Amino acid sequence: MSEMLKKFRDFAMKGNVVDLAIGVIIGVAFGRIVDSLVGDIFMPVVGAVTGGLDFSNYYTGLSKAVTADTLAEAKKQGAVLAWGNFITIVINFIIIAAVLFLVVNALQKLKQQEESKPAPVQEPTRSEKLLEEIRDLLKK
Question: What radius of gyration, in Å, describes the C-alpha atoms of the chain?
Answer without folding.
Answer: 30
